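Operator note (shift B, R.M.): manual run for Transporter requested after the automated queue skipped it. Running by hand, logging everything below so the morning shift can see what happened. Input copied straight from the record, untouched. If output looks odd, do not overwrite the archive copy; leave it for review.
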Amino acid sequence: MFSTIIASAQNSVNDTIVLTRVDAETIFLQSNLSLLAEKLNIDIAEAQVIQAKVWPNPTLSVSEVNLWSNSTSEELPVLWGNYGRNQEIGLSLEQLVYTAGKRKKLIAIEKVGAQMAAQYYKEILRSLKTEFRNNLTALQFNQQQKSVYEKQLLSVRKLINAYASQVKKGNISQAEYVRLKASELEFLNELNELNTEGNALQKEMKILMNLPAKSYIKLENEGFVPNLNPLDELNLADIINEAENNRPDLQFAKLAQQYSDNKYAYEKALRTPDITLQASYDRGGNIMNNFFGVGFAIDLPFFNRNQGNIKAAKYAIEKSILIKEQTFKSAQAEIVQAYGNFTNARQLYESIDTGYDKDLDMILESHLKNFSDRNISLLVYLDYVEAYIKNKEIILTSKKQLNERLEELRYASGQELN
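Run finished. Output pasted below as returned.
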């Protein structure tokens, strides 16, 4: 999928890649190195669950083997051939047996740990996706701003070229010509700053998308204004109520408390000593030539009953409860703030007449023609150009803020909301 998108977007002349927002996000989700690395933590956590399920290995010991004999050696039945007449050997087999359900409790801890790793991955994805989408919006904003200034720069240069000969003939004052040159310089300066901002955005985008350093990303205008129709039925109370199930950080906080509960149960179980079962064989070293015996070993919990770790685990439960409560309250405040910001941004955007953008372009063309025909003065023309650029920036900024506020609400709610 990734190679198909790149192949279809790659410009044959240079390293420019023309992408829609959807295509760019597809590349990001498939190729972002931070996401790929973080996803491995889920596999690591799941492997810990597997490890917690296995039993400890039995221990085989071989001892009391004499490599030679002396005059005090007793003769024993041979083992095979003539070997073993004076040979002693001891064998023991030990198996550790967990008591008080420690193995089951440890498995429960690791299972919650795996769930926490999955939720943490979702939280990283949520944060990176918001950062990426805001960079997409910023890059689209930057490229459309550049388009406005490039258009004005082209118009001014046409006027400068047309007026150059007229200045020499004395038909146009030197002051008007210099004023046009000053406007050209102002536009060049603005474009220089926009190019610097664009280069910084290009760097961030290429890192997030794992693209070659020499690539140049050109975004289509599609998606700069989000589809607002699915958002008409948004209800703040519903978003707050559903946040617990949708936000990974809230799920993580709940799992953290569950992890602390399981850890406390495990630490309490460690008060009970484990038992080591033993089976042994001894040849020639006991009251019998071939001795078989069984036994066990157990710690005597006179001094260490894991008191400190149990108390620490209990405090950890209290801490996790407080953190969960704080996380939930912070989430609710974030949602209310994000909802209010989005509502304000939407009201601003919708207060701008749909055709106002095109009206500005039409009036600008009219002013340019009237100035070229000497029907209006240079001052009137440049005043309108300044007003035109300011209004264009207001329109573009309202679209940019609408997209950013929507992403803020998506992040706060934990939902795509479309």
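Quick read of the result: The chain has ten helices and six strands. The first helix runs from residue 2 to 9.
Leaving this for review. - R.M.
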